[in-house]
Amino acid sequence: MVIEIEDLAPHHVWTAARIHWPEAVVEPLGDVHDCSSNWSGGCRDPLP
Q: Is residue 4 domain-resident?
C-alpha cells in the first residue's frame, strides 16, 4: 500500500495508517496533528 503526503509543515506529525493485528488489516488515516506548541526534539503531545 502506498499513502502519499505532500507539504507536511515543520513540527507536524502525520499518522498515515493504523494496522490491525493479527487481522492484517491496514486502515488508511491521513491524520495530521500540529505539535508546534509542544515540540522539544519531537512531538510531546499524546498521540493515538
A: no
